[in-house]
Amino acid sequence: MSTESSRQLKRSAMGAPGIVFFVVAAAAPLGATLGAGPVAFAATGPGVPGLYLVASVVLLLFAVGYAAMSRHVTDAGGFTAYIALGLGRRAGHASAGVALLAYNCLLLGVAGQFGVFAQDLSRGWGHEVPWQLAAAAALLLVGVLGYLEIDLSAKVLGVLLVAEVLVLLVFDVAVIARGGADGLDAAGFAPGNLLAGAPGIALLFAFTCFIGFEATTVYGEEAREPRRTVPRATYVAVLVMGGFYTLTTWAIGLAHPAEEIAARAGEDPVGFVTALNTAFVGTFSTELMQVLVVTSVFAVLLALHNTLSRYLFSLGRGGLLPEFLGRTHPRHRSPHRASAAQSGITALALAVFLAAGADPFGQLYPWMMGIGTVAVLVLQTAVAAAVLVFFRRRVRGPRWQTAVAPLLGMLGLAAGIVLAVANFDVLTGLTGGAAFLLPWLIPVAALLTLVAAEVSTRRGHPVHLGATALSERDGPAPDRTPAAR
After folding, report:
1. For residue 85, what pLDDT is reported?
2. Are 62 and 297 in contact (CB under 8 A)?
3. Among 129, 175, 249, 357, which one is most buried in terms of CB atoms within 10 A?
């Protein structure tokens, strides 16, 4: 295989459905519903479906500009390519550190979550498996799948995703068909209910349920007809996730008396949804749901690992990380070295938490998910700004796609950052100095990669992020762009 081809991922490996499977699976619809749903309802009460709808609209506005720019970007660097092209190379270098921090934290947190869920499931079957062993086995399998061809991972995720979505849709239909607890109504969308309690916390957790959809562009190099497939997959992912979460939270709200729902969510968060499912669908469905929660979280592990592998591959190819990471497998055309390196990084980081005696669900999961969520919101906001600058300086297009929607999405995401930082103690369970200090890891990560890129450039090895991203039809980039300067 030639040197050039060894630096390219497998072409035309996935269509829009495969990409959608990856990014929706990364959000773990079933796990997110069972995990974030009770917290949101406890904070706000019956207005949660309306807040999920608000989050859906904000992210759809973001997706308009994101999808428009994806027609000009087909780089496995995802966010870093967008930010480098829109806001300049230094901003791209800084964003690389934030992206690596974000997705590594999310991957570690989900590994702890998987271990606990798998241990609980095995305990119910009479053969308890330690959470550490369950997490290690899952990460090993994820590493193997990440090493192989991308379409195999897509097929695995597709099966798991369809199963978890179907079990919740059956619940939704059963609740709606029986009229819920007190009949069908739109109380979940009433403005008064949306503003009741602590809507900021509920909206923040709604945003966390969408984490992962933005990875559609990471698979652009492996997509068939990427300039059409990636935008289509982005819109489908946001619409499917937004519609699914809004419908399911509405069904959950209908199944509880409106005046009691906040108290019930706070008193029994674990059984808040599963007990309803048993009442409206049956015991077998709930037992199946408990199994699918575990497979749902495994799907998240696989999707996050694949996203990180492609970030490492792109950064290795661009010169910010060691060059050997930017090579693909001669037969599978997968980022096999980056995948193996990511498996090692994950194992090492998890070993540090194990040595420290961290509780997987009380510490590892909430701490890592909290940092990861804030970091992804920061990246999304920066990408929205990059879209605005890119279309203003490089390519002209409809103002709705290139200016209005991205601006509104950026403002909504910035509000999400404010909510996340202000409620970081709720998001992570931390109090005092730790809740204040942990978010500072984000600017530290940005500064580290920025310094590393500057040092590399001064030594005669310039870093090129997003350098291959412009499509041929766009022609050469004008000298007045930040990237050119």
Report:
1. 86
2. no
3. 249
Count of domains observed in the chain? 1
Compute the distance between CA of residue 467 and CA of residue 484 in angstroms, rounded to an integer: 10
Q: Which two tokens stand for residue 339?
A: 């995948």
Q: Compute the distance between CA of residue 136 and CA of residue 141 in angstroms, rounded to an integer.
A: 9
* Residue 231, pLDDT score: 83
The dihedral through the CA atoms of 112, 113, 114, 117 has a sign that is positive
Report how far residue 136's alpha carbon sits from residue 396's, in angstroms, rounded to the nearest whole number.
49
| Residue 431 burial by Cβ neighbours in a 10 Å radius (0-12, 13-18, 19+) | exposed
Asked whether residue 481 is domain-assigned, the answer is: no
Strand partners, 223: 14
Closest CA to 442 of 376, 385, 366, 375: 375
Give the Cβ contact number of residue 247 at 10 Å.
17
Residue 484 lies in a domain: no
**What is the domain range of residue 38?**
10-462
Residues whose CB is less than 8 angstroms from the CB of residue 15 and which lie 6 or more positions away in sequence, other chains included: 223, 224, 229
**Is there a domain that residue 356 lies in?**
yes
The one-letter code for the residue type at 117 is: F
256: left (phi over 0), alpha (psi -120 to 50) or beta: beta
Alpha-carbon separation of residue 70 from 44, 348, 402, 463 (angstroms): 36, 34, 12, 22
Neighbours of 432 (CB within 10 A): 8
Is residue 1 a part of any domain in this protein? Answer: no
Cβ neighbors of 195 (< 8 A, separation 6 or more) are: 47
* DSSP letter assigned to residue 334: S
Among residues 362, 352, 370, 361, the alpha carbon closest in space to that of 439 is found at 370
Q: What is the CATH number of the domain that holds 306?
A: 1.20.1740.10
R_g of the chain, CA atoms, integer Å: 22
Mean pLDDT of all residues in 449-461: 86
Express the helix, strand and coil content of the chain in percent, nearest 5 each. Answer: 75, 0, 25
